[in-house]
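Record type: monomer structure entry
Structure origin: computed from sequence
Chain ID: A
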Amino acid sequence: MKKIKNRAFAALLLSIFVVAGLGVYVALFLTDGSDWATFTANQTIYQNGVLKTGTVYDRNGVILAGYADGQRIYAQDPIVRAACLHAVGDMSGNIGTGVMTQFADELVGYNPVTGLTDSDGGELHITIDSALNAAAYNALGTRKGAVIICDYTTGEIICMTSSPSYDPLNVPDLTGEFYDGVYLNRCISSTFTPGSVFKIITLSAAIENIPDLYERSFWCPGSVEVAGVAINCSGIHGTQTIEQAFANSCNCAFAELSLELGADTLEEYASDFGLLEQLEFDGISTAAGRFDKDVDGSPGLAWSGIGQFNDLVSPYAMMRLAAAIANGGEAVEPHILIGSDGGSARLMSSATAGEMRDFMSYNVVNNYGEWNFPGLSLCAKSGTAEVGDGTSHAWFVGFLDDPEHPYAFTVMVEHGGGGLSVAGNIANIVLQEAVKG
């Protein structure tokens, strides 16, 4: 009798393990089945590591990638092919953030019930305007950099171009110095010293934490000493209001504000604005930024509020912040798939966003020159970020205060020089193209 009980118990235990194992398998099948089906070893949909099914279209119906006559095809225009490479992905999947890799299950038409569809696969329609990407790529020229633009009312990313790039149908020798980091989408997968565009964060914090900010005057003799270290400015600005200090991008004034606000406050605002987090859009992860807190009264703290020290941000995060300012403080989460909805996040109060809008408009009207951006209702901040090798990253961040063309943008050129003269010029070229439609 005891032997029968033991056998029954063993059978029951085995049954429990089988049922539990089946449950685990079913759970994994439901969560990971698409990854199993789209694994590159699946010769039904891959040939030599190249996806051989599905078609990617831009927002206007232009084919960006497909498969026909036994080979992968791309857009007809070689400039469009290079300009959209990082958004679409390369043939071998080296660009992991490209939509062909990220959404392979949709391209193969995977369904957990029916499996894979026919050999034509599925269709993927993305928000990118390939002609606008081409304009951005041409504007960057031979320089390394990033251009990213979204509609701040809908979140649609209409332009996302990273350089260096290449024509995937005519792959050059990628071992040269120029192609260093060629598989990285610099818009979303890299971070850079922000320089003066970080003053957007410092000023936002000052608006909300320094009650007499607008009554103050800021003195700039060309440099200010902090704990025996000179914080140099780009000029001698004399006595300024906060509006003038922001437009002049005065390091002396913003060193003063940084020391008063403190490292904890600056880090809090950078974090709340999403600059330090690994963000996601449509499941695609972006690079997290960095803000190192130096001690009170230190040169490092002064420099960090100016966008130097060890600060790092991604172009994507800066565009998202600019979009939130344009949209009354609320960021409609960017996305690249037509029809997707990532929701929204409030980054700042509507009152602070309105004040920042006025500051960024003041920059253009009173410093950058509206004539440099004809016909554009531009609000912006430039940045020239020193990177320690005698060169500077050029930044230009902002938005169009225009209901017909609600675009927020970031332009960043690695080792490009002046923010306004280089990145600002590229922004004008691309935005002029954007408003044509």
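Annotation 1: The radius of gyration is 25 Å.
Annotation 2: The CA atoms of residues 213 and 373 lie 30 Å apart.
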